[in-house]
Specification:
The chain is mainly beta. Helix content is 3%, strand content 43%. The strands form 3 sheets. The chain has a 22-stranded parallel beta sheet that branches. A 13-stranded parallel beta sheet has the order 1-2-5-8-11-14-17-20-23-26-28-30-33, covered by helices on one side. The chain has a two-stranded antiparallel ribbon with strand order 36-37. The termini are far apart. The C terminus is likely disordered.
Length: 439
């Protein structure tokens, strides 16, 4: 039988968490809407407890979201988790081996005293065994954010197995002179599902990799990113100089699917303004098994990106640093607008297939840009390139320029109300990628 514990304003939330850990079966902590609970908080590892921490509201408040994620306007009905003044610990974390935790309808506030810290850590970087990895962890309809001026280093470190992030909103993750992320993971076996959520960060909005896994042979696997929106506000061109990198970066991973996502706004700064970066990296030189394998990116919109829409490096290029050749990359049904280049290959994955991708007449300058050292391992099928230069440029002609060049009629994106036009620096009101159909 489920146990329900109501936590009122002023009640000690950590005491309620500890009490829940002494129960068995399903336990639900219902936090009063709008109340602020001051942490930090630690969820205890109790394998015989399925714990839900949620807003004490009717589920109908979050059942018909448009866009499909919560927005800051929902903060009024959300309980708030806040750091104690001066604390350096994450606002919320869990013990090694924690299992069966669901967060629903919570707001996590920034640490203005220590903006260089993470807000939520599920799964420590130091874990060395699979038994330590938290599992079956879900964040649903949560609002996690930094301060609009001082920012925050990272929203969520998500080194878990069977993890889900759904209908969440991550914003204002900025840090001057250092990479910041809305969401990052690297020391996890997977699987992970990230769906119907919004992400803002100056460094990488979403990062897989960036540090070596601490378990030998471990590669994050079975990762799905579906229906997400990665966006950089244009005000950061002035307020976060020297910090902006890319919208989505994958440095190691196996069986990765990215679909029905929007990637919008990037410019030359700490990097050259690329959108999606797929780069095999043995980051700290201690994981020679690092690779990227079996990746599909499909039915996505990439727009307003000053560099390449998709940039690829299939093998570690630092002298003396070992890695494994990246394999089996498929880029399908992508709509690319207002980007300098479509696809940039520094060393392609073996093989790389580009199918049914479209660029419009206003960009990019080259649909496919290949470095002179690239081998002939790229297949382009039924692509439509209507930029100022069609097809390929660089060291290799992959054949795209010899294929059909007419601009196919494309159904790619449906928008809601137009009051959030992305080209003016604000997130689109309701971007939902429904797929690209070439006719």
């Amino acid at each position: 039988m489920a146990v329900t514990i109501r936590v009122r304003a002023g009640d000690p939330l950590q005491a309620a968490l500890d009490h829940a850990a002494r129960q068995t079966g399903s336990v639900e902590l219902r936090l009063v809407p709008g109340a602020t609970f001051v942490g930090p908080f630690v969820i205890r590892a109790r394998p015989d407890v399925a714990l839900t921490i949620r807003a004490d509201v009717n589920d109908g408040n979050f059942s018909t979201l448009s866009p499909p994620w919560v927005t800051p306007e929902y903060a009024a009905v959300m309980p708030k988790l806040a750091p104690a003044p001066g604390t350096v610990a994450p606002v919320l974390t869990c013990e090694d081996g924690t299992a069966q935790v669901r967060l629903f309808g919570l707001e996590v506030l920034p640490n203005v005293d220590w903006p260089d810290r993470d807000l939520i850590v599920f799964g420590q970087d130091a874990m060395t065994t699979l038994g330590q990895v938290p599992r079956h962890i879900t964040l649903e309809a949560c609002y996690v954010h930094g301060h609009p001026e001082t920012g925050q280093h990272r929203g969520l470190l998500f080194n878990v197995a069977h993890g889900v992030v759904s209908r969440c909103y991550f914003s204002d993750f900025l840090e001057i002179g250092r990479d910041s992320q809305a969401l990052a993971l690297w020391n996890t076996p997977g699987p992970i599902l990230i769906e119907d959520s919004y992400f803002e960060a100056t460094g990488e909005n979403i990062l897989v990799g960036g540090a070596d896994p601490k378990m030998a042979g471990l590669i994050p696997s079975d990762l799905t990113f579906r229906g997400c929106y990665c966006f950089k506000p244009l005000r950061w061109m002035q307020t976060a100089r020297g910090s902006v990198k890319n919208l989505f970066e994958l440095k190691l991973g196996r069986r990765v699917l990215v679909e029905h996502c929007v990637f919008e706004h990037n410019w030359p700064d700490a990097q050259d303004g690329r959108g999606i970066v797929l780069t095999v990296r043995n980051q700290d030189s201690g994981a020679p098994w690092s690779t990227i394998q079996d990746v599909t990116i499909r039915s996505c919109l990439l727009t307003d990106i000053a560099g390449a829409a998709v940039s690829m490096l299939g093998l570690e290029d630092r002298p003396g640093v070992a890695s494994v050749q990246g394999t089996n990359l498929r880029l399908e049904q992508l709509l690319i607008r207002y980007c300098r280049n479509g696809f940039q290959f520094n060393n392609p994955f073996q093989p790389t297939v580009i199918r049914h991708c479209t660029t419009d007449a206003r960009g990019p300058r080259a649909a496919v840009c290949l470095r002179p050292q690239c081998p002939r391992a790229i297949e382009c099928v039924s692509d439509s390139h209507a930029g100022r230069q069609c097809g390929a440029r660089g060291g290799v002609d992959c054949g795209a320029s010899r294929r059909r060049r007419e601009l196919h009629r494309t159904r790619a994106v449906e928008y809601g109300p137009a009051d959030g036009c992305g080209r003016h620096g604000h997130p689109r009101a309701h971007p939902v990628v429904v797929g690209v159909t070439l006719e």
